[in-house]
Design goal:
single chain; FAD/NAD(P)-binding domain; 6-stranded mixed sheet; 12 helices; oxidoreductase; FAD-dep_OxRdtase_2_FAD-bd; oxidoreductase activity; flavoprotein
């Protein structure tokens, strides 16, 4: 029997496993995916958001606690547990030292349109390199790993963990357990149930793509909900990004994102704008656009720019539609040409000339236009014009298990003595809605380490008679 069983194979699971092993516990990690797909959604990440009161290695200037908190408060519209959020924020000030110890390297600060040189530390080689580093460290420490192991249920004695049962019937006993198996974003039927139908009677989730891993089916989360574990979060809330409509159904990751939204306009299939494209910096708003597109007819949108925007954003993997006139562009996108011309002309006439600067919240905005564009509003008047079709891309869901600072799973508000949770399975405690770049990895790193520490402590307590 192992001291600690960790169920999951991504960032939070690995942080838990490594921390528990460092605390003196013997650890077995169970990953549902095969080795080549290990790492969950963490393999698709690039960075984590970090608090710092002065320049630190790869982070410039300062990003103090209160600013981090206000950024999180704004994107979640107050749907967050402040105590847990501030716990995450504080943890990020020092976690990189521990990460480096386990082989994670960081690249020099970024600048330009991403606006994250001050707030986010980027992994050298991306999330895949981070995951590989953690697995190397885990193996070197003596952690045992099993791939292709999907857990269907847990054996519980009241709220105490006894064993995990795999789909093939294998039983894994341990003195303590950490659940870090992700949300239910890959479960299309559950997504359809959560999002329901639109006014046209269509299942909203029918046009979704899964930006993240295909292996997060939510089976363990569903089991825990059925067992009466305390839960938190809206099942329809998620990290939902507007991605290229040609993206694959699963595992498209970062490269499917369209990053020119704030530099132009976005219209639906009726050639109508429906939200302020320049509301705030893109890293603070990119994760609202999937949900916005999901609310549009047929869950489709089109990001439209002119040639002035080229070079100001990360170019997409797939080329967009290109035309010398808005009318021609509309035809290529199967949009009504008259309606799109009217939308673009109305937008152009509403633009108030200012000093355009896509690296700051500039004074280029619209007047007497609904919806307004608050920043970076310049006329679309310089051909060629470009259009990128958008669909909602789900990265991870926010419905999860309710926790407090100890990361213990709770039943009727009472903590389990030996069952803990980390990562996407509890991120809804901090993320009730919305997202700001890198905070998912911040949550997973923080609560993974807390869960691993407390699981080891629970497992190593000597029984007394």
């Amino acid at each position: 029997m192992y001291d600690v069983l960790v169920i999951g194979g991504g960032n939070a699971a690995l942080c838990a496993a490594i921390t528990a092993q460092e605390a003196g516990a013997s650890v077995l990690l169970l990953e549902a995916a095969p080795k080549e797909w290990r790492g969950g959604n963490s393999q698709h990440t690039r960075n984590l958001r970090c608090m710092h009161n002065a320049p630190q290695d790869v982070l410039v200037e300062a990003y103090p606690e209160e600013e981090f908190w206000q950024d999180l408060l704004k994107v979640t519209a107050g749907k967050t547990n402040e105590t847990l959020a501030r716990l995450v924020i504080h943890s990020t000030e020092s976690c990189r030292t521990w990460m480096k110890k386990h082989g994670v390297n960081f690249q020099p600060p970024l600048s330009g349109a991403l606006h994250v040189a001050r707030t986010n530390a980027f992994f050298m080689g991306g999330g895949k390199a981070l995951i590989n580093a953690y697995y190397r460290s885990a193996i070197a420490l003596g952690i045992k790993i099993r791939y292709n192991t999907k857990i269907k249920e847990l054996e519980l004695n009241d709220s105490k963990f006894v064993a995990a049962i795999a789909e093939d019937g294998t039983r894994f006993e341990a003195k303590a357990c950490v659940l870090a198996a992700g949300g239910f974003e890959s479960n299309l039927n559950w997504l359809k149930e959560a999002w329901g139908k639109n006014e046209e009677g269509e299942w909203i989730a029918d046009n979704f793509v899964i930006r993240g891993t295909r292996f997060n089916q939510g089976n363990l989360l569903k089991f825990m909900i059925d067992q009466g574990a305390d839960i938190i979060g809206d099942p329809s809330q998620s990290h939902c990004v507007a991605v290229d409509a040609r993206a694959p159904l699963y595992d498209g990751g970062i490269c499917t994102r369209i990053d020119c939204v704030s530099l132009g306009i976005v219209v639906n299939k009726n050639a109508q704008r429906f939200y302020d494209e320049g509301e705030d910096f893109w890293p603070k708003r990119y994760a609202i656009w999937g949900r916005l597109v999901a609310k549009q007819p047929s869950q489709i949108g089109f990001s439209i720019i002119d040639s002035k925007s080229l070079g100001r954003f990360m170019p997409p993997v797939f080329a967009g539609k290109t035309a010398n006139t808005i009318r021609e562009l509309a035809v290529l996108c199967d949009l009504n040409p008259e309606k799109l011309e009217k939308t673009v002309n109305g937008f152009n006439q509403a633009c108030i000339k200012g000093e355009f600067n896509h690296t700051v919240l500039d004074n280029c905005h619209t007047q007497d236009l609904t919806p307004a564009k608050t920043h970076w509003a310049t006329p679309l008047d310089t051909p060629p014009f470009y259009a990128y079709a958008l669909r909602p891309g789900i990265t991870f869901t926010y419905l999860g298990l309710k926790v407090e600072e100890d990361s213990a799973v709770r039943f009727n508000n009472l903590p389990s003595p030996n069952l803990y949770v980390a990562g996407e399975m509890m991120a809804g405690n901090v993320l009730g809605q919305g997202y700001t770049a890198g905070v998912g990895m911040s949550i997973g790193t923080t609560f993974g380490r807390i869960a691993g520490k407390n699981a080891a402590k629970a497992a190593l307590i000597k029984e007394t008679i």
